Amino acid sequence: MENSIKVGYDSQTGMYTFKAGYTPSLSVNGKSIIDPLTGGFKNSELYVISEKPEVITYTVRNKSLKHYENIETGEIVPMDLYKSLEDEIKASREYDEDSDEYAYETVEAEVAALRFARTYKSVWEDIEEIRTMDFEIIEYPVSAYKNIVPLYSLDAKNIFETKCKFTPTNIETFYEICAEYGIDKSRIDIPTHSGLRYAKIDNTYLTGAEDFEKFGSNQTIATYKECIERMDNNRKRLNDMISMHLAKTSQKILDKGMVGDLLKELLTLKSRVSGLDVKQKDYNSQRSLVVKMNELIETYKQLA
Fold it and tell me: pTM for the complete prediction?
């Protein structure tokens, strides 16, 4: 049995859960884990209780050598006396590596050793040892977002991992950000089954939408904090994409307006220059100026 465990706490249910293997001697705060008064239940190796653990203990049962017994007389031989007799036997012999046997000083010593081995037996006793488990309470994250779900359950292999699953809701977020910019859904076109890949605002594709959809639509399994960061990053990227789209549209409209104004001014200026009564020596200069104006007028007509 592990002597260090993690205890998961779910603040939504007020329950504590831990995995400690099967042992009927397990106690929490001095109460048996199988006692109904603990207010919990057991599911395989998982224990679920309503009382916050302060001390978790379990009992280990082992055998310990109690003493020796003379099987001929039934006499109990204390361990210190048995050790003394055993030392005498060891002192009367030496181990012969060539023959792989003990060599005794005398025949009497060898007989005594054989008799010693046959006369005494070990007597064992069962002992119980109460051990305290080290544990760490881990609080399950409580998600404030419907698309970030904590990954804990009674059947999960890694029940105490505080990881969450983030499932992007990019289209919903996209509509929210558009609304913040005053763009209603009538101006938005999002084809079915393609996410934001081919999204349009005012019948114009959004730059970067396809690249965003490749990476921004993936699920993320990470800590709650990391999921929040991924969600915020998606929102920022969408906001930047919409903002850039509006800026380009605004710039495009502004440029056309400026071109139109310049075109009007050029036409007016051309009319005035053409109507000027100039001297013969200045006629070529006037004509050259009109030609350049015509070139500019044609250029602005193409841009308008």
Answer: 0.49
